[in-house]
Write a structure and sequence with these properties.
Blueprint: E1 3-5, H1 10-18, H2 35-49, E2 56-61, E3 67-73, E4 83-87, H3 97-108, E5 112-117, H4 138-149, E6 156-161, H5 169-190, H6 196-203, H7 207-211, E7 214-218, H8 224-231, H9 236-257, H10 267-271, H11 276-287, H12 293-300, E8 313-318, H13 331-335, E9 340-345, H14 365-378, H15 383-397
Parallel strand pairs: 4-5, 4-6, 6-7, 7-8, 8-9
Antiparallel strand pairs: 1-9, 2-3, 3-5
Helix pairs in contact: 2-3, 3-14
Keywords: Hydrolase, Membrane, Serine esterase, Transmembrane, Transmembrane helix
Transmembrane segments: 170-193, 370-388
Active site: 162, 321, 350
Length: 398
């Protein structure tokens, strides 16, 4: 059964009343309980089984001359249905398999979705030398303000997912053999288990509280220092690290294609980056004005900022996440927060959470918790939502 870390109060009472999944035991897929297998096979299964989503695209021009793609999916939803903004992971975009999984789940409960593709993602050109990083939330702030402006009087929520992207062929091959070895072991035994949003909620008060009704994150890197250390461990974690670094470098290569002037960094040094830490050292710190990687990671980490969050904020983490170990999850801080709740499963990997012997024949765990949470938030008798509305009304009157 998952652990729920949250202070006693209205939010915790709401979760216990509206999320029956919290009273159930999470049983990871038997043949795929190891954390990295969960991470890989969840991505592989979703990418093979979920067709591409036909979005309605909107290009939003940003105040500094940049642009982002907003992909809307509203099929079969009332025109005044609540809107959920989805933030993909590090190298993800609107057709990432975990995004499509959440879009399908939201559509099944008649909620409208808009996917916020970061600069340079989703197939659009870069207009400036700036891309994005975990600590800067001004792009998200502009997106939230825009979505609220074109949906006056309609509740807006947000969901962030960390570290997405397809897996390289080499990694899949290695894990394929790893999977076969694990399956053989099970047979023998038988003759016998997305940051930017968090920083926005912590740093943009009280505007975030006015614009967003609720928020949720899945597999968030709470402590960037510990997460980086974990993903640099050989061999499989380091391979995942290099794959993500390659994705970031490919994004920077688009600056050449789009003929964007170079920023305060050396392009050749950036493209030589083999790990996320090297990429952050060569590009992110210089582009966003940080002294060094430690300075950037200190600003980006959110495990010590929970007390600043005033919007109901549900977080799903796995204790065996290869990118964020259990000791990095701020359980004690959440237990002292009335607005932040962390659901921690023993297994699940990173954006994995596969369950059932044949996980592709049923709704997956993260989608079930996503649906129950937002059904409760936007339900007609949600006491939490009514409380929030009364609170906002009284604030306006004052």
């Amino acid at each position: 059964q998952p652990v729920l870390a949250c202070a006693d109060g209205k939010f915790k009472d709401f979760l216990l009343a509206h999320l029956p999944i919290l009273q159930e035991k999470y049983w990871p897929t038997l043949w795929c309980f190891e954390s990295r297998l969960q991470t890989v096979f969840a991505s592989l299964l979703r990418s093979r089984l979920l067709p591409n989503v036909k979005y309605r695209r909107e290009i939003l021009k940003l105040s500094d001359g940049g642009q982002v793609a907003l992909d809307w999916f509203e099929d079969g939803c009332p025109h005044d249905a609540p809107v959920i903004i989805i933030l993909p992971g590090l190298t993800g975009e609107s057709q990432a398999e975990y995004v499509k999984c959440l879009v399908k789940a939201a559509n099944s409960i008649k909620l409208r979705i808009v996917v916020f593709n970061n600069r340079g993602q989703g197939g659009i050109s870069l207009m400036t030398s700036r891309t994005y990083c975990a600590s800067k939330c001004d792009d998200l702030s502009e997106v939230v303000t825009h979505v609220k402006a074109i949906n006056p009087g309609i509740p807006i929520a947000a969901t962030g997912v960390s570290m997405g992207g397809q897996l390289s062929g080499l990694l899949l091959l290695l894990l394929y053999y790893y999977f076969l070895l694990l399956l053989l072991l099970l047979l023998l035994l038988y003759i016998y288990f997305r940051l930017i949003l968090g920083n926005y909620l912590a740093s943009q008060q009280p505007s975030a509280e006015k614009l967003l009704t609720a928020a949720m994150v899945i597999s968030v890197p709470w402590n960037v220092f510990k997460g980086t250390e974990s993903i640099e461990k050989p061999v499989l974690n380091l391979l995942l690290n290099r794959h993500l670094a390659n994705g970031l470098c490919r994004n920077i290569e688009r600056l050449k294609r789009d003929k964007v002037p170079q920023g305060p960094w050396n392009l050749e040094d950036v493209l030589k980056s083999k790990t996320i830490r090297e990429f952050d050292s060569h590009y992110t710190t210089k582009q966003f004005g940080y002294k060094d990687v430690e300075d950037y990671y200190t600003d980006a980490t959110i495990h010590d900022k929970l007390h600043k969050i005033q919007v109901p904020f549900l977080c799903l983490s796995a204790a065996d996440d290869p990118f964020q170990p259990l000791e990095a999850i701020p359980v004690e801080e959440a237990n002292n927060s009335k607005n932040v709740a962390i659901v921690i499963t023993a297994r699940g990997g990173h954006i994995g959470f596969l369950e059932g012997f044949l996980p592709f024949f049923q709704e997956q765990y993260m989608c079930r918790i996503f649906m129950q949470y937002f059904t409760g938030i936007f339900g007609p008798v949600s006491e939490l939502y009514l409380h929030l509305q009364r609170k906002k009304t009284s604030t306006k009157k004052r």
